[in-house]
Structure of DHA2 family efflux MFS transporter permease subunit:
Amino acid sequence: MKKRIPLSANQTTIRKNQLSDDAFVPDAHQHFDHPHKVMLGLYISVFLGMLSETSMNITLPDLMADFGISSGTAQWMVVGYMLAIGVVLPCVGFMLKWVKAKTLVLFALVCFLVGAIVCTVAPTFPILLAGRIMQGVSTGIALPTMYAAIMRVFPPHKIGAANGVAGLVIMFAPVIGPTIAGALIGAFSWRAIFALFAVVAVAAIVCTALFFVTPIERTRPKVDVISILASAIGFGCLVAGVSLISDMGFSAVVIALLVVGVIVLAFYARRQLTIADPLLDLHALGIAAFRTPAIMISCSFSCTLAFMYLVPQELQRGMGLSSTVAGLLMLPGGVINALCTLAAGRMFDRYGAKRLVWAGSALTVIGGALFFMIGVSTPVALFLAAHIIVMVGIPFIQQSAQSAALKSLPGRMAADGSTIMNTMQQVCGAIATAVATCLLGLGQTNYTAAGGTNPAQGFVDGSRYGYLFGMVLVVVVLACSFLLKEHHEEPKLVPVHVDVETLAV
C-alpha cells in the first residue's frame, strides 16, 4: 500500500511541477534563498520595456521633423507600442501554461533586441514603427510574467514589499527615461536611444539565462485558436479606432474599427467565461476584491500616461525649452516617484490600501490643478512643484491597489490575474494617450478659433484639456476606493498529501 504523508514547508526537494496549482503551500516559497536574484533578469526586462514606453514622448518633436509627419502620426510610436502590448498580454497567461517562463522571457528579450536594432537603423517611419511594435510584444510578455513570478517566488507576507520593488523597477524608467532621452538627442540623435535599448537588452538576456528559474507550473490546456484571434482583433481594433480619431475624426473607418472592436471583445469575454480551457480566466473579474482595485489601477495608470505624454511636449513646444532641459526638469519628480513607489509597497503591508489611495488621490488632484497654472512664461519652479506632487501621489494609488488586487486571488489565478490587470492598464493607457492627443488638438483648435495667434500658447491651452481628463480619472479612482475591501488575514495553509512512491520516480 502506498504511504501518504503531509508536505512540510521545509521539504524543498519535492518536484513542484508534479503538483497541481492548488497544491502550492505559501511557505514553500522560502526555498528561494535569493528571490531578487532569481527575478533580476525579469526586473531588467520590465525596466527596459517601461524605459522604452516613457522615453519616446520627448522624441516626438524630433521624429516629426525628421520624417515630416504630423503629431497624430508620431503618436503611434507611443500608441502602437501599447497596442502591441495590449494584443499580446491576454495570451501570456495561456502561454505560461504551455511554455517554460524562462524560455518565454528569453524569446521576448530577443524580440526586443531585434526591434531596437531595427529602430536604430530605420530609414523610414513605417520601418521605425515596425521595430517599435516588436519591442511592444516583448514588454507585453515580460510584464505579466514578472508579477506572476513574484506571487510564486516570494512568501505571502512579503508580497506587498516585493510588489514595491517591482513598482520601483517600473517607475525608475520614467525617472531617468526623459532625462536620458533628452541628453542623447542633444548629444547625438534619437537613434542613440534605441542603441542604448539594445545594450540593456543584452544585459537582461545574460541575467535571465544565468539566474531565472521557472516558478510557474505548466498545465498545457487545450489551445483555443478562436479566442486568440478574437483577442488580437478585438483589442487591436478598439485601440486603433480610438488612436485614429485625432487624425481622421469620427470617419466611417474609425467608427467601423470601434464597433468591430467592441463586438469582438464582447464575444471574446463571453467565450472565456463559457469554455473549459479559456485563454484568460476572466472569472477573476467576478471577485470584487480584485475587480475594484484593477479598475483603480487602470485609471491611475491612464492618468500617468496622459500626463507623461503631455508634459515633455509642453515643456518643449509650449515653454520653448530644449529636449535636454525638458528631460532634466522631469528628473526630480521621477526620483521622488521611484522612492515613493518603494515606500508604498512596504506601507501597504502595514496600513492596507484604502488610506494610501486616499492620500495619493488628494496629492494627484492638487498637482494636476497646479498644471493648469503653467503658461508660456511660467517659472520652472511651478512646473517642478506640480510634477513632484503628482509623482508623489500616483505610486500610493498604483502600488496599493495592485498589491490589494493580487493578494485577493488564489494562487492558481495569479498568472491570469496579473495578465488581466496589465492588459487593462496597457489598453486603457493606449486609449488615454489617444484621448489626450484628441483633447490637445481640440484645445489648440479652440484657441485658434478664438483669435489666438501664438502657437506656444495654443499648445499650453490644449494641454490643459488633457490635464483635466487626467484629473477626472483620479476622481474615478477616489470613488472606487470607497468600495475597496481590506484583507488583513494571512492565507490559511492547507495540508497537501503527496504520493511518496510517485515522487521517487
Observations:
- The first helix runs from residue 35 to 38.
- The chain has two domains: 26-221+277-503, 222-276.
- The first strand starts at residue 4 and ends at 6.
- Residues 394 and 452 are 34 Å apart (CA to CA).
